[in-house]
Amino acid sequence: MLKTLAGPKLGYQIDRYQHSLQSATRALRDGADEETVVCALLHDIGDTLAPDNHGGLAAAVLRPYVSEANHWIVRHHGLFQGYYFRHHLGGDRNDRERFRDHPQFEACAHFCERYDQTSFDPDYDTLQLEHFEPMVQRIFARPPRGAD
Ligand SMILES: [Fe+2]
Ligand SMILES: [Fe+2]
Questions:
Q1: The dihedral formed by the CA atoms of 13, 40, 72 and 85, expressed in degrees to the nearest 10
Q2: What CATH architecture is 15-140?
């Protein structure tokens, strides 16, 4: 799913595959834990199949293997990203404020500010997939949490 993001740039300077790698690289360099780095790597994997609800799709895939907090962050990152562009499209950039009192509000805002919205830089020193593969394998090798 991650590799299907390679190719179309959708108006950005880099494609979603490179964006994903760059997001993970920034999370790693920010000192985030391994699970969060993997979430940064995979946060947009739903973009091909469900562009308007891609966070929900990625969150569903990750859910058994990550914390409730990281699940919530991945699920809601699209809404929180809206803070950076919705007002340019006639929308409300502060839509995310309805979650202001949620325990993961600040963490999700941090994820978007530091890893997601900033990771469209064609000149950034982005680590390649091989660097993250062992992390992905470790996270998905853990016993899955309870199913729905
Ligand atoms: Fe996204
Ligand atoms: Fe993203």
A1: -20
A2: Orthogonal Bundle (1.10)
Ligand nearest to the CA of 20: 2
Cα of 126 to ligand 2 centre, how many Å? Answer: 15
Which one, of 6, 26, 25, lies nearest residue 16 by Cα?
Answer: 6
Per DSSP, 128 falls in state: P
Residue 54 has pLDDT above 80, yes or no: yes
- Domain ranges across the chain: 15-140
Contact 14, 122 (CB under 8 A): yes
Measured between alpha carbons, how far is residue 6 from residues 83, 95, 96, 138 in Å? 25, 29, 29, 24
CA–centroid distance, residue 77 to ligand 1 (Å): 6
Q: What is the mean pLDDT of the chain?
A: 96
